[in-house]
């Protein structure tokens, strides 16, 4: 039995092809998929997987907004596994000196828009499932390859596929925490819009109210807000960030009348959460701060909104924090398969590596809350402003994922 397993593993690993994997990553980069615009790349992935022989469903999560879920069917009677990765990419950072949608390789780095977060992980999980298919090794359980939308908007795509029948026994989310670490815990994310209103001069009121300086005072006060929480093992959490702000004239924030009062200023507040925190506890804390400002300044008028209005094309639902025990079987299987490939234990199991923040939410938490153990294991690389993925880690990730699927689904 052991000999047969070793033979199957060898046959599968022989079909992990570095060049093919890189070309798949490049193909994904060439199709821009910023937040809310995943449909073109979802359609491409659907055709790609269909041509390989997978059973493919192009899911319409909302009208005209699609994600791709593909299945490599097993013979029956075995456990199932989901590989989960998101197709949406962060907005482009400044500083690109080359076309970000024309990917290129320098040494061990594959560069291109969205490759780190997380088209490298998507490519690695697709390639892992396809290596099993190519090997001819037949598993009893299904492998589901979920290429989802809206992870960067809180995980709407993953929530949708769970609610529409894709509840595998276990899952692996290929976020870019690095292929030498298996991650089971990190913060969550909750986001709010804050609207501050101004007023134009009328009658004896020669100055009116400008919403921008009022917002500046509000932001300073928000950063000083103490968020209600229980201490957790991660230093620096909870964490609050005002990441975007816009102000102008009217509901559409018209920017052309720069010599007049801003009558509507909106800021967007992101809060990294720890277990026990909710949108309701955060709202209470923020409103406590804002109500104090209103008592001090009768001209301060605000509205705090959660969830953020859909017209802003940003956050939709919250990511809960994640805290899954490292003793879960899928976690130990990943670690064991990593050792099969490399001959050593992973550098870490549980916490993210020390050079990567634990403050951001991921779709593994939605899967875990649905009863699906779902650690993170994916290739790492650069940063938001230096978008590349480590090719060696992409290859290693594909190898470990493939062997993990064999162990789970046999």
In short:
The chain has 410 residues and is of the alpha+beta class. The chain has 10 helices and 17 strands.
What structural keywords apply?
alpha+beta, four-stranded antiparallel beta sheet, five-stranded mixed beta sheet, Alpha-Beta Plaits, 2 domains, Aminopeptidase, about 400 residues, 10 helices, single chain
How are the SSEs placed, and which strands pair?
Layout: H1 2-13, H2 18-29, H3 39-52, E1 55-62, E2 65-72, E3 81-86, E4 104-106, E5 109-111, H4 115-135, E6 143-148, H5 156-163, E7 170-173, E8 181-183, E9 185-186, E10 188-197, H6 211-223, E11 239-248, E12 264-273, H7 279-296, E13 302-305, E14 322-323, H8 329-342, E15 348-350, H9 364-369, E16 381-383, E17 386-390, H10 391-409
Parallel strand pairs: 3-6, 3-7, 8-15
Antiparallel strand pairs: 1-2, 2-6, 4-5, 5-17, 9-14, 10-12, 10-13, 11-12, 16-17
In CATH terms, the superfamily of the largest domain is: Zn peptidases
Task: Provide the CATH architecture of the largest domain.
Answer: 3-Layer(aba) Sandwich
Q: Gap between N and C termini, in Å? A: 12 Å
**CATH fold call of the largest domain:** Aminopeptidase
Write down the secondary-structure element order: HHHEEEEEHEHEEEEHEEHEEHEHEEH
Can you describe what's shown?
This protein has 410 residues and is α+β, with helices and mostly antiparallel strands. It folds into two domains: 273 residues, Aminopeptidase; 125 residues, Alpha-Beta Plaits (2-Layer Sandwich). The protein is 33% helix and 22% strand. The chain is built from ten helices and 17 strands. The strands form five sheets. The protein has a five-stranded mixed beta sheet, sandwiched between helices. Strands 4-5-17-16 form a four-stranded antiparallel beta sheet. Strand 1 and strand 2 form a beta hairpin. It is elongated.
């Amino acid at each position: 039995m052991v000999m047969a397993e070793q033979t199957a593993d060898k046959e599968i690993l022989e079909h992990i092809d570095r060049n093919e994997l890189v070309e798949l990553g490049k193909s994904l980069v060439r199709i821009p998929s910023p937040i809310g615009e995943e449909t073109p790349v979802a359609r491409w992935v659907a055709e790609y997987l269909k041509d390989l022989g997978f059973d493919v469903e192009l899911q319409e999560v909302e009208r005209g907004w699609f994600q791709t879920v593909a299945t490599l069917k097993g013979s029956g009677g075995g456990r199932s596994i989901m590989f989960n990765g998101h197709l949406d990419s962060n907005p482009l950072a400044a500083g690109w000196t080359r076309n970000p949608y024309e990917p290129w390789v320098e040494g061990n780095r594959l560069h291109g828009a969205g490759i780190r977060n997380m088209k490298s992980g998507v490519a690695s999980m697709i390639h892992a499932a396809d290596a099993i298919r190519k090997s001819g090794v037949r598993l009893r359980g299904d492998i589901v390859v979920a290429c989802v939308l809206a992870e960067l908007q809180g995980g709407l795509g993953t929530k949708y596929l769970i609610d529409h029948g894709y509840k595998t026994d276990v899952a692996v989310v290929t976020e870019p925490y690095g292929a030498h670490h298996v991650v089971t815990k990190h913060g969550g994310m909750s986001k709010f819009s804050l609207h501050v209103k101004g007023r134009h001069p009328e009658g004896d009121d020669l100055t009116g109210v400008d919403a921008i300086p009022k917002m500046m005072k509000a932001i300073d006060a928000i950063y000083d807000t103490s968020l209600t929480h229980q201490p957790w093992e991660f230093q620096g959490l909870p964490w609050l960030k005002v990441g975007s702000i816009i102000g102008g004239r009217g509901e559409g924030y018209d920017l052309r009348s720069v010599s007049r009062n801003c009558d509507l200023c909106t800021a967007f507040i992101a809060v990294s959460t720890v277990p026990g925190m909710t949108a309701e506890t955060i709202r209470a804390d923020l409103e406590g701060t804002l109500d104090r400002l209103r008592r001090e300044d009768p001209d301060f008028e605000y509205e705090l909104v959660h969830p953020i209005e859909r017209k802003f094309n940003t956050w939709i639902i919250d990511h809960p924090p994640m805290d899954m025990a490292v003793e879960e079987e899928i976690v130990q299987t990943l670690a064991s398969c990593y050792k099969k490939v490399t001959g050593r234990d992973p550098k870490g199991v549980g916490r993210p590596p020390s050079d990567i923040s634990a403050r951001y939410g991921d779709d593994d938490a939605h899967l875990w809350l649905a009863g699906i153990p779902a650690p993170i294991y994916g290739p790492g690389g650069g940063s938001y402003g230096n978008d590349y993925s480590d090719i060696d880690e992409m290859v290693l990730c594909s190898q470990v994922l493939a062997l993990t699927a064999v162990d789970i689904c046999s």
